[in-house]
Amino acid sequence: MNDEIKFRYNQFLENLSDRLDIPPSKYQQAVERYQAVGKWLNEGEYEGSDGLPSIYPQGSFRLGTVVRPLRDGKEADYDIDLVCRLAFAKGNIIPEKIKHMAGRRLKENGRYKPMLGKEGKRCWTLHYAEADGVGFHMDILPAAYEKAKFIQALIQSGIPEHLAMEAIAITHKDHGEYDWLSSNPAGYAQWFDSVKQVALERIAKREKQLILESTDTLYANVDAVPDQLVRTPLQRVIQILKRHRDARFAGHSLEDCKPISMIITTLAARFYNNEVDLYSTLENVVRQLSAHARLLNPGYILEMAESDFRYIQRNADGTWYIPNPVNPEENFADRWHEDNNRRAKAFFQWVAWVAQDLLDVLKASSMPEIGESMQKIFGEKITRDASTGVFVLGAPAVVSANRHQERHVEIKKPLKPYGHRFEN
C-alpha cells in the first residue's frame, strides 16, 4: 500500500465522519432542548415518589456516535433519547403507572402537548419542527429504580459495582399489556467512556481547538468546548460503519435483518486497541470481525470457537451470544439463529462488504479512483464534501492539513442498551 495514499485516505475518512456527525451548533440546540424537557419533567409532581426524577441522555447522542439515519434511502430526522427515571422502586409501582405519569406531565405543557406523538412501546416521543432542513425527534423513556436483588446479581456476575448500580427498570407495552424490562444506558455509557478514555486524553486539546476555530462565537474558549464533541478514532469508525450499513442494506433483500447499532458499537469497542488513527482502527475492527465469520460453518470445532472467541459466540445448539457489557444476561444476538441464521448471515455479509468497500479499496492506484468508489456507497455530495482539501474527483490530488469545518448535521436514533426481560 502506498503510504501517501494511506495518509490521504485516513484524512478522507476523518472528513467523512465529520460530515456524518452533528455540527456543534445543532448539538448545542439539541442540548438546550433536552435540558428544557428535563427541567419540565423534573419540576413535576409524581404522587408517592421518593424524591426528584433523574433525567439524562442515552444512546448515540450520549456516546458520541451520532449519525443522521437513512430511511428509504433518504436522510431522516435526528433522534435524541432521554431517560426519565422517576423516584419509585420497581416493586412498589406498576409499569403502566410510571409510563403514564411521565406522559401526563408532558401533556401539561402547552408547548409539548401538540408535539407529543402516540404512546410508543417504551417511549413518549416529541416531534420538533425542522430548522435549516434538520428535524429532531426526542424519545423519552420512563423508568424506575431496579431491584436491589437484580443489581446484586449483576455484581456477582462480574459487572463492576459502579456500573451495576446504574441499572434501571423500564416500561414495555406489548399488545396492550405492560411489563418491566431491565436496562442500563448510563452504565453502558460509562463502560464505553472507559474504552475510549486513553484516546480522548491524547487528542482532546487539539480537537477542541479545531472545533473552537470552526464555530466562531459558539464557545468562549477551548475549555468551554464539551468533551462530548471530541471524536476519538473509535467513535469515528462507529459513525462510518453505521452509515455504511444503512447505505449497503437500503433496498436489499436482507434489509430487515441488517445489524443493529448496539451490536456494531459494542463489538467495535470490544476490539478497539487504542489505535491512533481512523484507518488503523477500522482495519483492526474489521479484521477481528471477519475472523468470526467461520462461526457460520457448522463444521467449525466448538471447543476452538469457545477458546478463540469471547465477544461473538455460537453455542452447541446453534444459538448465538453477544453479551451486553453491563449485563451478561442480555444477549444482543438472541435472534441470530432464527430463519436459518438469517441475521448472522446478514451481519457477516455486511462485514465482508465493509472489508471490500473500505479496506480493499486502497488497492486502487489513486485517491480520485478511491473517491469514485466512495461515491457509490456514501453518495456524491458527502463524498465530494469529504474530499475537500484531500483530493479532487477526476483531478490531481492536493493535500491540505485543514480538516475542520463546522461538522455537518446528524443525530442517529440512540442506541438502546436495554431489552432484557426481568421476571418479577
Describe what this molecule looks like in 3D.
There is one protein chain. The protein starts with a helix and ends with a strand. The protein is of the alpha+beta class and 424 residues long. Helix 1 packs across helix 8 and helix 1 crosses helix 14. The protein is built from 14 helices and 13 strands. The strands form 4 sheets. Strands 1, 4, 5, 6, 7, 8 and 13 form a 7-stranded mixed sheet that branches.
Assembly type of the chains comes to single chain
Q: Using the coordinates shown, work out and report the CATH topology of the largest domain.
A: Beta Polymerase, domain 2
Mean pLDDT: 88
Q: What are the secondary-structure elements, in order, as H or E?
A: HHEHEEEHEEHHEEHHHHHEEEEHHHE
User: What is the CA-based Rg, rounded?
Assistant: 22 Å
Number of strands: 13
Number of helices: 14
- Class by SSE composition: alpha+beta
Low-confidence parts: 395-424
Largest sheet: 7 strands, mixed
Number of domains: 2
Distance between the termini: 57 Å
Q: Quick one: CATH superfamily of the largest domain?
A: Beta Polymerase, domain 2
Helix % is 40-55%
Organism: Desulfosarcina widdelii
Keywords: Antiviral defense, ATP-binding, Magnesium, Metal-binding, Nucleotide metabolism, Nucleotide-binding, Nucleotidyltransferase, Transferase
Catalytic activity: GTP + ATP = 3',3'-cGAMP + 2 diphosphate
Domain Cyclic GMP-AMP synthase DncV-like nucleotidyltransferase: 54-140
